[in-house]
């Protein structure tokens, strides 16, 4: 990939995330999310492999639908309440639509199907961005709107995510898919506590990022895409493979 194009994409990612995190107006938050979506597409499809192009197309369609739903929920709220402020989301229909829109963006169950497929179709470094940096703006929106979200819907999706993330990851042989289901499971735990203690959700997300980043980077260094490759990787770089095992245990909470 052209270095200038890569720099532009990464700069746009930071810009989009910053706009969403620091905005107080729904349209600005939506614009930041759209910049993020468009910035990551070249990074997903940079290998020009049919699988990567498919992943980029799926990601664009899912994120565009979620962004449209988010904008529709804020417009509905503005129509009834007359407020575009993020913290003033009070209309029940808007709250329900927003909960759904952010769940699609994050990949919570039952809107999780796109995430493992896209992570499988892209490189480990881009997968790292998808699992950490691109989850931060939607989680920030969840934190800002947490008092007005639908708690029943949120708790149901969170419990389903935590359960399905664990079960579906058991019969996978691809490391990227296992990490994708791990992300879905962790998001479930983050969301379940959101209604009661939003700060704890943020701490959990930071800890998850702190543990996931070195795992992705280590797997990329030792070129491990399958569990069979991981079992023989210790002969190449023993110290790094031992550290990887410790990091995986840390992510499991042991």
UniProtKB/TrEMBL annotation:
Localisation per UniProt entry: Mitochondrion inner membrane
Membrane topology per record: Multi-pass membrane protein
GO cellular component, one term: mitochondrial inner membrane
Domain of life: Eukaryota
Keyword Transmembrane listed: yes
InterPro entries documented for this protein: Complex_I_Subunit_2, NADH_UbQ_OxRdtase_chain2, ND/Mrp_TM
Functional description taken from the UniProt entry: Core subunit of the mitochondrial membrane respiratory chain NADH dehydrogenase (Complex I) which catalyzes electron transfer from NADH through the respiratory chain, using ubiquinone as an electron acceptor. Essential for the catalytic activity and assembly of complex I.
Family recorded in the similarity comment: Belongs to the complex I subunit 2 family.
Record protein name field: NADH-ubiquinone oxidoreductase chain 2
Source species: Thamnophilus aethiops
